[in-house]
Amino acid sequence: MQIYNTMSRKKEELVPLKPGEISMYVCGPTVYNFFHIGNARPFVVFDTMRRYLEYQGYRVRFIQNFTDIDDKLIRKANEEGCTVQDVADRYIKEYYTDADALGVERATCNPRATEHVRQIIGLVQTLIDKGHAYAASNGDVYFSVRSFPGYGKLSGQSVDDLESGARIDPTEQKRDPLDFALWKGAKPGEPAWETPWGLGRPGWHIECSAMSMELLGPTFDIHAGGQDLIFPHHENEIAQSEAATGQPFARYWMHNGYINVDNQKMSKSLGNFKLVRDIAKEFDLEAVRLFLLGAHYRNPVNFSRELVEQAETALSRIRTARDRLREAPVGEPTPADAAFLAEVDGHRAAFCAAMDDDLNTADALGALFDFVRAVNTFVSEPHGQEALGKAAKLFDDIAGVLGILQHTQDEEIPAEALKLLEARAAARQAKDWAQADSIRDALKALGFAVEDGKEGAKLKKL
Predict the structure, then answer these.
(1) Among 3.40.50.300, 1.20.120.640, 3.90.1150.10, 1.10.10.60, what is the CATH number of 304-402?
(2) What residue ranges do the domains of the chain occupy?
(3) What is the pLDDT of residues 44-88, one digit of tens each?
């Protein structure tokens, strides 16, 4: 498999540290609110990466952290009159609700920063002892950027370039404008831990270094996250980790592109901030996942109602083909079976070739739809069990990698939906197309899609 390594700025063959195993750390959410569609993209993309690696036979140790101590959590707790832990516990639970609905598999481990304060303090002390960090008189501890010659190698920025835009806030006690906080001295009303340099709490960057090295070792295979994390977060992680250990940190760096909403940058000020929890009220989140995989992960994506509706239609096509394959009549093998068996192998190879080319899910979906068309043609007549079974296995494998078709389609359809389907049929017979469309929307609100065929309309669970 070839993946684009942000560090080298080129595609490289993925060669794991340990044969047959992949160690992977993906930056997770700061748990002070529901997560938005921009957060969802790396969750879905790197979940798909993990699924594909497991499909290829790797044993993947997948770590995704929760930042549960941060200025945002502290403000939220103060606003609501509760503890920071109360806020974190609540939104970690909500994270799982939305991530599960998006088909994101549970990580091997979801470490919390507050559960690793001992490791964080130890790492900070190591950096102080090695001359890479210093404690200020107010209890802050800063990393000395100029003490690490490789600073800027991930983002491609030089220290001189960074220096021109750097400044020191009057409240900070840095020795150099480029230095960044590893530890923050205690302030009234904030959670704090005792350290050799006084009471305080972790900075943001240090938590990921401490947790990744604790759980995966000083050097691991893949570190991933959104493009916005390249600088300063991941740059700082590299500096503090490699300065502490003297060893390479992550061997491959993967970053997904931004999401725009209706061709504008997503921001609260523009009123286009899309929480996944709100999107779920209008759309099937499995279709949202399909939408997110419809572009190469390094390219920007534009989120719009029209594009998600197109993804819903595409998902319906995939579900219909899968169901037709399951329900296809089994007969004696035909001369067409041998050709179809070879064709199935070709579709599998095309899917894998796309995924092996830097996780190109856009081309992989193209291979899936080629397979869908082949299935729809093939099942129009009875065929042998071997050909049908092999096609069903490929459907299951691709769906498993992409994280779709995971919802059961065998749930009982409520009477209310069946009555609406009858009313829609009557409206169509009367050529009242507006009423028929209105009923279709009502069925969608109930969680059902209408599929029209030669034998009449039927409902499919979204």
Answers:
(1) 1.20.120.640
(2) 2-256, 304-402, 415-461
(3) 999 999 999 999 999 999 999 999 999 999 999 999 999 999 999
